[in-house]
Amino acid sequence: MMTTSDLNSIYLDQAEGLTKSTSYLKPAKEEALSFFKKLGLPHKKLDSWKYSRIEKRIPSTLVLNKTAEVNKLAGDLIYPDADLIVLVNGNFSSELSKISSSLSYQYEKESNKAYDDLQIDPSDAFDNLSLLLTEGTHTITLKDNEVLTKPIQVIHLNEGNSESTITSRFHFEAGKFSKATMIEMHLGNGNNTDYGYSTFSLSDGANIEHIKIGMNNSDSTHVGKVSAKLKKDSTFHSFTLCLGGGLVRNHVKTNLVESGAHAEVNGLYALQGEHRSDNYTEIHHNASHTTSGQLFKGILADSSRGIFTGRVFIHRDAQKVDANQLNKNLLLSKEARIDTRPQLEVYADDVKCAHGATIGQLNEEELFYLQARGIPKQEAYEMLMAAFSEDALMKVTNPTTKKWLADFLDDHFEKTRKK
Which residues are within 8 A (CB) of 397 and not within 5 positions of it... i.e. 6 or more apart? Predict the structure, then answer.
């Protein structure tokens, strides 16, 4: 097995060529390369990657996987009547996509956006690596006061059995007092490594809900990040649903930069087999009179492992802040494991904060009660898991989307039970 040092050498050599081979975002890519050189790949001594050995999962080369033929999508994956954007191995599929003329969507392959405009984090190695690998940015723009009555659904289909890399970047620009729901799905069926990054810029009074769903097999690796910048009186609702993968790293970062901004950063991970989900969240209160809430719940069966690191920062001079954070976990076997670290860092005086974590098992009395009424054991398990998930799903604000997501999860639990 290659060491992190070996991979660093290979990646740096190949990354140098990525800045020379294209004029797209050349200045930003050069800046990303300089940061990647300083950072190198994450290692186990880095606190934010303490529990995940990424060097065991990523390929030994930066070869992009572009080859795949998909002619049809499973009907249960598609949200009814949504604007549908489909990427196959990171490439836009006009055959599978269905976009109304009213949606302002474009794929920018020629752009002069600066490094800062792309919300790249200079302390995040994979954020910079993803920018180096990308060949274009998918951009969705909402005008001031524009309200979308149907969701936008983005499906990332990652196929193929070669050891290779897939990358995509989405940017969502929300004008003043605009409103929309975006559902993003990452589906991994091969042994690829998928880097999926989405950024959101919310103007005054904007209200955006982003739902990210990950369904990956045990051979696939996903490293993804959702970043949002919130201006005055804007609201960002993030919900992350992870239903498996060899290693799935979901990083959600929100910056509340002006008063009245509110962020909800919620999620659910339901794992089985030897799947691993690493959830890392950051909520930065950079302005007074900002609020945030967070509820992440985990259901872990077999030998699966969940990781939750939730960091809430209340920066200096950010007074009158209200922030709440909770992580709750349900272990279904003795071999399942959870590492949970809810964290608050407070540098202001006049704030209201709470955080906590719980780890438990299924209530045997409830299980016995259901079985005594003729419900098979596995079906009873499924019912109790659905009940445990319910308050997390209730955080989704769009009623129609909430119902679709609950049905989607119930269907997943049923399919899992029948395997």
Answer: 209, 237
Q: Structural domain boundaries of the chain?
A: 4-361, 363-419
User: From the first residue on, what is the mean pLDDT of each consecutive set of 10 residues in the chain (419 residues)?
Assistant: 78 76 72 90 88 84 70 80 93 92 86 70 91 87 97 91 82 97 91 91 98 92 96 99 95 98 98 96 98 97 96 96 97 95 95 95 84 87 88 95 92 73
Give the residue from 178, 6, 53, 35 showing the smallest Cα distance to 103: 178
Cα dihedral across residues 315, 229, 177, 78: positive or negative:
negative
Rounded-to-integer distance, Cα 20 and Cα 17, Å: 5
For helices 4-20 and 26-39, the axis angle rounded to 10 degrees is 170
Rounded to whole angstroms, the Cα distance separating 98 from 418 reads 33
CA distance 156 to 174: 22
263 and 229 in contact (C-beta within 8 Å)? no
Q: Backbone phi, then psi, for 47, in 5-degree steps?
A: -55, -40
